[in-house]
TrEMBL record:
The keyword Signal applies. Keywords: Signal. It comes from the Bacteria. SMART domains: PBPb (SM00062). This is Transporter substrate-binding domain-containing protein. Residues 1-227 form the Solute-binding protein family 3/N-terminal domain. Pfam families: SBP_bac_3. The keyword Signal applies.
Amino acid sequence: MFAFSELAPWKLRGEAGTEEHGGVYTEIVRELARRVGRRLEIVDCPYKRCLRLMETGQADLAIGVIETRERDVYMKFLRTPHRSHSADRVFYVRAGDASRIRSYSDLYGLTIGVANGGVYFERFDSDARLTKEVAADNATNFQKLMLHRVDAVAIAEDQAAALRSEMHLESQLEPAQLHIPDLSTRSVAVSKRSKAMAMLPALEKAMHDMRSDGTLAALYDRHYYTRYGLNRRQVKVD
């Protein structure tokens, strides 16, 4: 069972009236399940609930979850990453305001939109002196930014590029000058309390093969770059 929490543009719920979940991360997990001979079942849950299901073993797989020491206790992350490049953390502002945030200290005194359950980078996540305003998702934060209800939005660069394109805000929003690099990779997680742990060697092989035979690159092309009109010079992910 795949613990699915919507994370645009990577994990998307189906259009109204359908039950089909999409997005490149969802397609990666579908292909992974197909290669190990299992039918994929999806449980749609809020992010924190999905983590709890992984902790208890009620869900088998998760994707789009950042590896931490706490999560390593109850999740095993595959050795072969589905992403070899993680996105910079950026702060989106209204067009013309990019120089407003040049260094970390410029964040103080601003109201910064963050997504519920979002993890950005350690200094920012633990900084109680910053004013952060939580919204349900990044689209809501972009709307609030347009309405001057927040001064900036903390977001991963790859998510922002797709979302800005989808919301047709290319001329109205831009990233501030401050970029925080993230050098970590991203891997599918298996619940250590799940029966899927018995399939770990098969899952490891399947993910390795998906990378080496070009399947991962093809999925990113179809479900990310082509869909949002982006290219690998703008955002590098796989």
